[in-house]
Design a protein that fits this description.
The protein has 321 residues and is an alpha+beta fold. 32% of the residues lie in helices and 20% in strands. β3 and β4 form a beta hairpin. The chain starts with a helix and ends with a helix. The structure holds zinc ion.
Length: 321
C-alpha cells in the first residue's frame, strides 16, 4: 500500500501529539496563501490516516479496505500522483476489505471495563476466630470450600448490616463489586453491588478449561467454580463479557419457572443448556453438590448438556414447569 508520508514532498516533523507536521500542500491549490508555518498535518491510526490543514482547513481521510475518497484523490494529485496510479492503489485498498471488516469486528469486541470498588467495612473470614464460627458453619453446610477463596464478614456490625457474608467480585485481580449474603431470614437475602455486564466467577475460570458453567446464583457458582449471573436473565453485556473467556458455555438453570424460561435465551446466544436428571428436591446446582458431591454434579451437567430446544422442552415438561 502507498506510503503517504513519502508522497508528501515537504519536510516533516513528528510532534508530541502524534501529528506529522509540514508545510501544507493544499492551500495555494485552493486559492489560499501557501503555507510556510507547517500547518499541514498527518496523523495515523494503524494503517489509516487523516490529513488536516490548519491553514485553509482542508481535510481528508484514508482507510485501508475502503475506496480512496475524492478529497484524498485530490490531495494525491496535488502531490503529483497520476490518475492511473491512484486507481491502482484504490483497487489494492479494496482488496483489504475483509481485513477491514475483521478489525472492525475486533474493535467492537474490546474488553469490558469495570471500575475498582471498595468492600464494605469488614474483616477477612478466619476459621480461628470464634466470632466467625457461624459464617464458617454456613459455608460448610452449603459445601463451599471457604479455604479456596477470600470471604469477608462483619461480626462487629449490628442491626441492618449484621449477619452477612461478603463475597468480593473480582476482575483481573481487582475488586469490582461484591455481594452480601445475609444469614438471618430477612428479605432480600442478597444485596449486590454489581456493575452492568459483570458475571461472578470470571477470574476463577482457568485458561486450560474448555467449558464454563453458567448459573443464576452465586452459591451455585461457588460450589462448582462456575459463573453466576446473580439474576435470572442474561443481558447483552454479560453475553459479551462471557465471550471474552473464549469457552464453550453450559447454562444450568434453577428448577423453577423463571430459570427454565431463561433456557431459551441461553440457546439463542449459543450456549448449551443442561438439565440433569436430579431428584425433585434438588432445586439448583448448590443443592446438587450438597446431595451428590461436586464431581458427580459436574459429570451430570456435562453429560446432559445439549443445544436441542426440543430436548430441553421435553425435560422441562418432565420437571413439571
Ligand atoms: Zn491548506
Amino acid at each position: 500500500m502507498f506510503d503517504i508520508l513519502s508522497i508528501i514532498p515537504n519536510k516533516k516533523k513528528l510532534t508530541q501529539s502524534g501529528w506529522y507536521s509540514f508545510n501544507a500542500i493544499c492551500c495555494d491549490k485552493r486559492g489560499h496563501k501557501s503555507d510556510k508555518r507547517q500547518r499541514g498535518g498527518i496523523k495515523f491510526d494503524g494503517t489509516n490516516w487523516t490529513y488536516n490543514c490548519f491553514n485553509c482547513s482542508f481535510s481528508c481521510h484514508y482507510e485501508l479496505g475502503r475506496s480512496i475518497t475524492n478529497r484524498t484523490r485530490e490531495l494525491l494529485k496535488w502531490c503529483g500522483v497520476d490518475e492511473v496510479q491512484i486507481q491502482r492503489w484504490n483497487i489494492e485498498s479494496l482488496q483489504n476489505k475483509d481485513l477491514l471488516d475483521f478489525t472492525k469486528k475486533f474493535k467492537k469486541e474490546k474488553p469490558l471495563e469495570f471500575k475498582t470498588k471498595k468492600l464494605p467495612d469488614s474483616e477477612l473470614l478466619d476459621e480461628n476466630n470464634e466470632a466467625h464460627k457461624k459464617y464458617i458453619d454456613y459455608l460448610i453446610k452449603r459445601k463451599i470450600d471457604f479455604k479456596k477463596r477470600q470471604f469477608y464478614v462483619a461480626p462487629f456490625d449490628e442491626g441492618r448490616n449484621a449477619n452477612r457474608i461478603i463475597i468480593p467480585y473480582y476482575y483481573n485481580g481487582e475488586i469490582v463489586g461484591h455481594t452480601s449474603r445475609f444469614l438471618d431470614d430477612r428479605t432480600p437475602k442478597y444485596i449486590n453491588d454489581q456493575q452492568p455486564g459483570y458475571v461472578f466467577g470470571y477470574d476463577d475460570q482457568k485458561s486450560d478449561w474448555q467449558i464454563a458453567l453458567l448459573m443464576e446464583g452465586i452459591f451455585d457458582a461457588l460450589a462448582i467454580d462456575g459463573l453466576a449471573l446473580t439474576h435470572n436473565t442474561i443481558n447483552d453485556d454479560q453475553v459479551r463479557f462471557i465471550r471474552q473467556l473464549n469457552k464453550e458455555v453450559i447454562f444450568v438453570p434453577d428448577r423453577d419457572k423463571t430459570g427454565l424460561d431463561t433456557c431459551e435465551r441461553a440457546l439463542e446466544v449459543g450456549y448449551k443448556v443442561s438439565l440433569p436428571n436430579w431428584d425433585s428436591d434438588v432445586k439448583d446446582v448448590n443443592d446438587a453438590v450438597i446431595k451428590y458431591g461436586k464431581l458427580a454434579t459436574l459429570l451430570s451437567i456435562i453429560q446432559c448438556a445439549t443445544t436441542s430446544k426440543i430436548k430441553i422442552e421435553m425435560i422441562r415438561k418432565r420437571i413439571g414447569n
